[in-house]
Amino acid sequence: MAALFAATVVILGTDDLTALALGLAFCAMLVVITLTDLERRVIPNTVLLAGALAAVAIAAVGDPSSLPDRAIAAGAAGGLLFLVALVYPRGMGMGDVKLAAVMGLYLGRAVAPALVIGFAVGALVGLAMIARRGSAARKQAVPFGPFLALGGVVALWYGNALVDWYLTTFING
Question: Helix/strand/coil (H, E, C) string of the chain?
Answer without folding.
Answer: CHHHHHHHHHHHCCCCHHHHHHHHHHHHHHHHHHHHHHHHCCCCHHHHHHHHHHHHHHHHHHCHHHHHHHHHHHHHHHHHHHHHHHHCCCCCCHHHHHHHHHHHHHHHHHHHHHHHHHHHHHHHHHHHHHHHHHHHHHHCCCCCHHHHHHHHHHHHHHHHHHHHHHHHHHHCC
